[in-house]
Amino acid sequence: MKKISIYRPSTVDEAIQILSQHGSEAGVYAGGTDLLIRLKNRLHQAPTYLVDIKKIDHLRFIQEDAQGGVEIGAATKLAELADSRLLQDKYPMLVEAVNKISSPELRNASTLGGDLLQEVWCQYLRGGYSCWRNGGYLCYGAIGDNSYYHSAMGGRLCYAVYPGDAATALIPFDARAKLATPQGVKELSIEQLVPGDMLVDGRIQSHVVRFNEILTSVVIPPPKPGVRASFEKLRPRGVWDFAMASLAISLQLRDKTIDDARVVFGGIAGKPYRETSVETFLKGKTLSADLGEQAISVALANAAPLKYNATKIGMAKGLLASGLARLNA
Amino acid sequence: MKTIDGLLLDPVGCLAEFPPGPFHEIAVRLFGRKGKASASGSRSYWHLLNLMEAAEIPLKGERRKIAEALEAEAVAGASIYEDVLPVLAELRTMGIRPFIASSLSRTSITTLVQRCSLGEFLSGVWTRDDGGVKIAPLLAALGGASLPADQAMYLTDTVEGIKVARSAGVHPILMMNDPDEARRLATHNPAGGVVSLHEIPDFIRLIAAQNKSRAE
Q1: Rounded to a whole number, what is the distance in Å from the CA of A200 to chain B's nearest CA?
Q2: Within 13 Å, how many C-alpha atoms sit on residue A261's CB side?
């Protein structure tokens, strides 16, 4: 592992100054469950200067706001989200999703911000191949074994899937991310935060956070009346695995009539994949036992699987059917 | 990689899918090649170019007529990739100069360019009539367009294409049309690779952004 230097700023402003000073050589260090592995993997884009934000106040909290929503500090541990009575009462689907992230040990270290902004876990990247995210100009996943970590919905240079579960689960709640930047606070929807393979500061990354910006919190609006939500995840093992496919679905119901819907797939694309055609299809429908089969017929029409990962699409459709069945139960 | 200014394109394999039969037939009739045609138009084409290069003498008279007639069949049977025109249009807005640098004859290229309405997007056309096959059209394009080789990409889906580009000092970019074949070709050290042509503008933008970022 290369030599690194660690800064321990006490304020967000100080952290931004350090990040600005070192440019893309610096990186934010919180839980370390992604960053330290990137260093151990000797990735080209792993930072030399770590800016440890754990000592900064007001980055690790879960609190209700005046409108009845909840704000979560970016440095809050995933285990703290999983244990939060407030989140369990207001957004049980989010807690369900968090409990399916990685393993209990890693949830004790990983932060919400880290889960949202983590690097992809493509085996070629992590194995040191000179790919788009590692100083090269070729996606080995597109031509190699792409059965697990790669997109079945097309790509943009890099074909790795976005691996985070928290973003997939937050999008149905219309959650927003707050970023501290040198120009002040910036707010983005979660979809805007992780739009998939982006060219940012001369790098390909899944999120839009620039080298001198810090994700500080996530704000979830108050729960809407009549909302039922479910999170489903398929993975090779019951724990400590990324999604082969996942689904976060929420329905706003009036009796059994669907007034509004959010359908977001994880593990199948370079971003949390919001399936608006299914959302449109579901609106106005009556939640019933056969709705899942009908919804499947309009889902993921834009699928573009690679050689070995068409099974992801079948899994995702299966999750849609089981998710709707669960909400109908 | 230096910021890219121009793109060298041989239509065979990077702009259109060509049938292998006519290229194989030229190889059989003019060069005595035996055996079956490759399943790939690109491979049949490059096999033929190897034979043409080894013969050293430019095709003339009746031999030239036979070659051009069969090439015309290949062009007629070629199906242009659906992203070609939007990508060429995007490259034009980015100020990137696309050139045809092909070992096909000028007659064949002219027919193809007209048939596929490529003309308005191209900054120049060089063919085997400009000095020969394989590396010759690339060198002619670089010289004719005053394009520095290290600021040019050459798209290819064959080993020979990678080697020719390297010899010309141009960045060989692998068109990964077939994942199994691309996995094999990736071991021949291309400068990069794309799954489809629509990724080329992003590729060029990324290099420009990386160079800008380094300069800052």
Answers
A1: 8
A2: 26
Show residues of chain B in contact with A204, CB under 8 Å. 206
**B179, B199, B210 ranked by CB distance to A202: nearest:** B210
CB-CB contact of A196 with A273 (8 Å): no
From first CA to last CA, the distance across chain B in angstroms is 16
Write the burial class of residue A302 (CB in 10 Å: 0-12 exposed, 13-18 middle, 19+ buried): exposed
Measure CA of the first residue to CA of the last residue in chain A; give whole Å: 51
pLDDT value, residue A57? 85
Answer whether CATH 3.60.15.10 is correct for domain B6-16+80-215.
Answer: no
Domain extents for chain B?
Answer: 6-16+80-215, 18-77
Q: Do the Cβ atoms of A49 and A27 come closer than 8 Å? A: yes
| pLDDT tens per residue, range B46-56 | 999 999 999 87
Q: Is the confidence at residue A212, as pLDDT, over 80?
A: yes
Type of residue at A216: T
Q: Is B158 left (phi over 0), alpha (psi -120 to 50) or beta?
A: beta
Structure-block tokens of residue A137: 């100009």
Query: Which residues does B contribute to its contact with A (CB < 8 Å)?
Result: 1, 173-174, 176, 179-180, 182-183, 186, 190-195, 199, 202-203, 205-206, 209-214, 216
The answer to whether residue A239 neighbours chain B at the CB level (below 8 Å) is no
Top CATH class of A227-328 equals alpha beta
Question: In the predicted model, what is the mean pLDDT of chain B?
Answer: 95
What average pLDDT does the segment A26-40 reach?
A: 94
Indicate if the pLDDT at residue A274 is higher than 90.
yes
**Domain definitions of chain A by residue range:** 227-328
pLDDT bin (cut points 50, 70, 90) of residue A2 is: confident
Q: How far is B179 from chain A (nearest CA, A)?
A: 4
